[in-house]
Amino acid sequence: MAFAIPAGGARRTRTARRRGTFVPFLLLAPALLWLVAFFVVPTVSLASQSLQTGDIDNGFTLTWNFATYADALSRYWPQFLRSIIYAGSATVGTLLLGYPLAWFIAHRSGRWKNTLLVLVVAPFFTNFLIRTLAWQIILTDQGPVAQFFRSTGLTTVLQAVGLTENDSLLNSQFAVISGLIYNFLPFMVLPLYTVLERLDSRLLDAAGDLYANGWNTFWKVIWPLSLPGVVSGTLLTFIPAAGDYINSKLLGNTQTVMIGQVIDAQFLRVLDYPTAAALSFILMFAIIVLVASYVRAAGTEELV
Amino acid sequence: MAWLRRNLVVIAGLLVLAYILLPNLVVTIFSFNKPNGRFNYEWNQFSLDAWLNPCASAGMCEALGLSLWVAVASALAATLIGTMAAFALARYRFRGRAATNLLVFFPMATPEVVMGSSLLTLFVAMGVPTGQMTILIAHILFTLSFVVTTVKARVSSLDPALEQAAADLYARPSQAFWKVTFPLVAPGIAAGALLAFALSFDDYIVTNFNAGASTVTFPMYVWGAAQRGTPVQINVVGTVMFFGALAIVGIGQAIGARRRKEAH
């Protein structure tokens, strides 16, 4: 830097500033065009659809019919509530399972670190439907997992808390929530790994030197420092899980129907577009409200 | 007991890893099954049939071909326009930058079922027939934000002094970009492209809304199979994809290790 020619440097910053007026917009143009044409416009189109009346044969007209929202909510609130509860439970589950794995990979895996990270991501390349179907095989009544659950009395416990309805593990709330946890676990592990890996291990030594036990070291040092990873991990899990219906359809029963399943059926089979659009909007709104209050409570601004 | 306490997190971590990998093990084992009936849910007999005739299941290879084509095309398009946008967002301060960041974030925060259905409403309202083109539009849309986020993180982490140094050494701006900046950002672009490919190849929900009746991608084929009867061939595809991904990463790391060794 010492031999930089001042005049050249000044000229460069001046040109950069001048180019800066239109270059970023030129670079952004295609992406912005895409996002506006295929995300903003459809969202407006969806809003308009939700306020229309009519049917598929005679066409729909915009009548500002807000009653659709009230009807949709009063008919489908159990599915909404269930989706939020399942997604919330799955998020807590991924956090409980993902934290030890992320810590293990970040601090205890030595030269296996990269291999383990790859193993966390690699299942993504097998289609998630195929992997969810594999859970049907794993949880089947005659299988070793079901037998283990029966012999240890876990089946009785699950039934007592209402997660399963009878002896079998399949087609139950237990299977749906386990499936959601399984499907979104990598989305929790990767952000957690990123923050835990950067954690300075000297902080742990310092906590030990100050006579903190393992429990205190975790709650007072590790957990607060890992919060950004926890926040992005929970968002990456909760948002898609709330709209998911693959797990509830393949692993659940008629009592585990989630809201995504209703929206899908209304759009593609019942062809009641206004109700389907209203349901989509309520789901999006509920998620935005929950996420915004959660992010505020967690005190992180950095989302992306 | 002390040993157990010390290694508790290792044991827990390995158990969770087993939970992540168990379905892939089952998929692999059942790719060698000869099922008794239409559904491949119960172990019957060892057989290489599905491996020797991967396309014997009607329509599966066509669906796989379509999915691969869509994934490659949408990953390329999303990577190109996403990388441009990432540079704009990471390198320039301009009016509307915060709003643009928010607009990029929103599609990632939208449940797939909402995004798929809103695109369908638009296509229906405009009278656009659903098919390959609408699938491609949808896939570029939902992979774009992930590419922008990945590449932006990489560009932001670069030291701007490197480009200034290049300029001080009389490199033209284009030279500085292609010889200094681009090679440093390339891993981020590659990661974004790979992520876009994986997301597109795996997508069922958004695709199902925008595919129409006659266009079938691989995930749609699997979904249909789950209702009618699961051919063993889908397990073969799942197994090949899993071990293929492992092999590609393994080879990449081996090449990287050798390069580092040669550099020393």
Could you describe the 3D structure shown?
The complex is a heterodimer of chains A (304) and B (264). Chain A has 304 residues and is mostly helical. Chain A has a single domain (68-298), classed as MetI-like (MetI-like fold, Orthogonal Bundle), CATH 1.10.3720.10. Chain A has 13 helices and 2 strands. Chain A has helices at 6-20, 23-50, 67-108, 113-121, 128-138, 144-151, 154-160, 173-198, 201-209, 214-243, 246-251, 259-270, 273-298, and strands at 52-55, 59-62. Mean pLDDT of chain A is 86; it is low at 1-18. Chain B has 264 residues and is an all-alpha fold. Chain B has helices at residues 2-30, 49-52, 60-91, 97-109, 112-126, 132-156, 160-168, 173-202, 205-210, 218-228, 233-263. The longest helix of chain B has 32 residues, at 60-91. Chains A and B meet through helix 1, helix 2, helix 3, helix 4 and helix 5 of A and helix 1, helix 3, helix 4, helix 5 and helix 6 of B.
At the third CATH level, what is the topology name of chain A?
A: MetI-like fold
* Arithmetic mean of pLDDT of chain A: 86
Q: Averaged pLDDT of chain B, please? A: 90
Oligomer: heterodimer
- Examine the coordinates and then state which fold CATH places here, giving the name of the CATH topology of the largest domain in chain B: MetI-like fold
In terms of structural class, how would the helical and strand content of chain A be classed?
mainly alpha
In short:
The complex is a heterodimer of chains A (304) and B (264). In chain A, 75% of the residues lie in helices and 3% in strands.
Chart the SSEs and their pairings:
The complex is a heterodimer of chains A (304) and B (264).
Chain A: H1 6-20, H2 23-50, E1 52-55, E2 59-62, H3 67-108, H4 113-121, H5 128-138, H6 144-151, H7 154-160, H8 173-198, H9 201-209, H10 214-243, H11 246-251, H12 259-270, H13 273-298
Antiparallel strand pairs in A: 1-2
Helix pairs in contact in A: 2-13, 3-8, 3-10, 3-13, 8-10, 9-10, 10-13, 12-13
Chain B: H1 2-30, H2 49-52, H3 60-91, H4 97-109, H5 112-126, H6 132-156, H7 160-168, H8 173-202, H9 205-210, H10 218-228, H11 233-263
